[in-house]
Amino acid sequence: MSFKEMFDQYRVEIEEALDKSIVVDDKDYAGLVEAMRYSLLSGGKRIRAVMVLEFCRLFSGEYKKAMPYACAIEMVHAYSLIHDDLPCMDDDDFRRGKPSCHKQFGEANALLAGDALLTHAFEHPFSNCEGLDAKTAIAAMRELAVFAGYSGMVGGQYIDLDSEGKKIPLELLNKLQLLKTSGLIRAAGKMGAILGGATQKQLETVDSYCQKLGLAFQITDDILDVVGDEKLLGKPIHSDEENEKSTYVSIFGLEEAKKIADELSDQAVAELNKLPGDKEFVIELTNMLARRTY
Amino acid sequence: MSFKEMFDQYRVEIEEALDKSIVVDDKDYAGLVEAMRYSLLSGGKRIRAVMVLEFCRLFSGEYKKAMPYACAIEMVHAYSLIHDDLPCMDDDDFRRGKPSCHKQFGEANALLAGDALLTHAFEHPFSNCEGLDAKTAIAAMRELAVFAGYSGMVGGQYIDLDSEGKKIPLELLNKLQLLKTSGLIRAAGKMGAILGGATQKQLETVDSYCQKLGLAFQITDDILDVVGDEKLLGKPIHSDEENEKSTYVSIFGLEEAKKIADELSDQAVAELNKLPGDKEFVIELTNMLARRTY
Fold this sequence. Notes:
The structure is a homodimer. By secondary structure, chain A is an all-alpha fold. Chain A is built from 17 helices and two strands. Chain A has a two-stranded antiparallel ribbon with strand order 1-2. The longest helix of chain A has 28 residues, at 200-227. The model of chain A has no long low-confidence stretch (mean pLDDT 94). At the A-B interface, helix 2, helix 6, helix 8, helix 9 and helix 10 of A face helix 2, helix 6, helix 8, helix 9 and helix 10 of B.
């Protein structure tokens, strides 16, 4: 199977599982469930979910048991986008070419839809953990909570907001992105590896890979905000400049930023090569993510 | 030990555990942690945490192992209050006599502090579950996620917002409160009972007790919003009338509402009497909560 075929198969299965993961079971709060589903099922590349499945497969040869966890990480990702788009945060009217959740359902409902998605992320795997050792399930979900919380993604978002309009040093930008963007990427890699039965040393290698990939991914994001195609991206470009955000491009310039992303991507692949198993897919995934054009 | 002494001992231990549950470990997001701690440690009766501990004690004779779960439910409660107070929700400037989180730290930081508290609720017990069977830990945390999520507390909050300014039928008011106010009370009772090793039949009795207690608690809340003392309550009264909310008082009148709360409280105690063990404390707790004057 080619990389593209395997990637598409993962995505089809993820979409099916997400579609079944939240159902309208009560007319009185159907509007809330509709808002949750609107944001959860609005496309996106499902990179984090694919990583959970693929790292599980890499260490155990199978990925089906990791599906509820792959869904959970997409729920956390979807909630974070809903809350990030709110007027008191980035105040974005569009997301993936569609009205953002609060433009579609109102601010209060968007806030609640985000809260409910975050909460459901911690229910769904525990309601669907047949065939998995309970200790392993806890270890995987603990990673998600750590990397999504105050010392992870939310902490990074706090630093990001706190830095708006300021020139921040590279050290702080690295830290911000290690928490914010890389947070869920690290959670995805580690969750998949834990579910697949990786050793402690292998987990450290996976985490090192995820940190490099996350940074390369963010630098590419910064580059695309300057040179990307608005139609392909589904969002306006030049938003960093408008929000006066420090980025890898504002610090290093476009060419140097591209070079750094390339180097990080090579370093990430070098980490992968320390791991056992068939790494062809995840190496191609790494190159796709770090060198993407939209 | 008298009821009051035991209640106070629980509360002292809960405050100590909460104080240790989130620490500032990084200056760059110290402001976020400060906002989380401001809301988490701002007092409150800690009823839900006490229930977790007491139901664990009732079934197993000891309560210390339930402390991380008692902390988790207080984190969920604190997050829900922060988000409820936001301008797009109830727009409340005060909480327990102090400025609400967004008045103190700004809207974006309050939103993030709520998100981070909710996330930490699902990390804390999994980082502190020594001596507990992993399956039991998962079962307890699953209850928290179910009762806090879209088919629980958040669903109830959605119906509440959706009903503002409308006269709603008693059936919908009952449902709303069963989800919204009773949600975490049911989670507290069931989590404690699960951690204490209750049987399935006992869990059903605990849930029935919690539903009756939750409703009595809410009716008393509605009554206090009409006849309570603002200073003792730490918040303005007559807010339901101002927000045109349907309440048990607006439907039944003050006297009849008091009678219903009394009856529910008696029914709750009758459920407790089906359970084994020393129920003196939890019976006094029930009467205190359902017949409280602030």
